[in-house]
Amino acid sequence: MKKVTKKIGLLYFIMAETMSLHFLGFEALASESSGGWRPIYDEVLLWFNAQEIERIEEKKKQAADKVTEINKMVDESKTRFAKIKDRIVEQGERKKAEIIESAQNQSKMMLENAKQRIDFQFVQAKFILRKELIDTALNLAMERIPKEMTPEDNEKFTREFLTSTATE
Known about the structure:
By secondary structure, the chain is mainly α. It contains four helices and no strands. Helix 1 runs antiparallel to helix 3.
């Protein structure tokens, strides 16, 4: 677009030069002290330069407007980015709290499970110990009773047994 505008400006310039040569005559170019053509030439160039300056000023204004718009968009983007960042941090904090709570619940369950297993093992150990104590006591009794029992004791136990079964 810029090249096209320059070409059009150049075309206008060439046309103006051609017209000035036509009106002023070719002899004006040959003379060094031509008084009549220079002011017209200056006026034509001033007119072209004024148009060029206006065009450049308009482009400058458009560029400034674009810069202002872009700065506004950047500010809005920064605000939006800050909001998104805050939301992500907030979500992260919530997720972190959920993970911590879940881990705490899981550790409580693991501790209770371990306590139940320990209690069960303790009950089993007591049962096994009681069984072994009873077995040991019976074995000792089986070894000692025949050695220490007298025939009178045997008769006494037999009578007591018969008496208890007869009453039933």
